[in-house]
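Lab manual, section 2.4: Encoding a predicted structure.

Procedure: take the sequence of the chain (296 residues), apply the prediction step described in section 2.3, and record the output as structure tokens. A sample record is shown.
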Amino acid sequence: MMDIAVFADIHGNHSALQACIDYAVGRGITNFLLLGDYVSDCPYPQKTMELVYVLKQYFNTCIIRGNREEYLLNYRKAGGEGWKVGSSSGSLLYTYQNLTDKDFNFFASLPNYGIYEMQGMPKFEYCHGSPENTSEVLIREKRNTKRILAHMETSLLLHGHVHIQDTYVYRGKKAVGPGAIGIPWFHGGKTQFCILHGKGKVWEEELIQIEYDRKEILKEFKESGLCNTAPAWAALAMHTIRTGVDLSETVLLRAMRLCEQECGAVKWPDIPEKYWAIALRENYIDLAGKEIPHKK
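Recorded output:
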């Protein structure tokens, strides 16, 4: 039997990544598939990259690029101008400033799509967003998801990006989302990945959710200065880590709307921090990522 641990959307949460590695290795797994978005949103991205390099060096590991790696590479290629301190782009700026030439060269070397081949087993495809675009969102029953599956060369696709742990079958083709390791949705915020079991001539997925030391990563948000560099965005990341409930898009859209109403126009990343603060409070989240008590 062949087992592969599939990791996606780590987003700099080295505490969760270490827990997932320990769990997989504890089950005797030596094959890993990494689906992108290794950094951004959480503090000390260098700690996550050290773990990625360890997996690459000591295990049989396939690694592809996510949309966050592409953001960072494109920003560097453009001269590193545009991102600012503040909740709109401060988290990306913080991540960019804490990466090295080694990290950027590594990201640049990665493909954004692959086909896994192993003798005696059916081939399967893997990507971050979709085989066509690292930022494409694949959600069950959506038209684009059905189109991607219908035109696949193989009968199995592993994908990340959506932070939703799910299996979806369409016309005999299966899409498996392993869930997010670093900013996981649902399941009370437990970190999530999947194990792909090769049994006979069939691949079967096992969806995993495990607890980990959240206190460690939450403490580092303040220690690292990330809470000062991107106050509301850091609070949203911490809130999702605590609860598994993601309100980042809701708060972002509200902050943009408030800015538009008062200023007449809005252009990312130029959204004043006061609008982020109002939008955060309206959703009952404080700057430590904790829920503000309220009547529901």
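Check your result against the sample. The longest strand covers residues 191-199.
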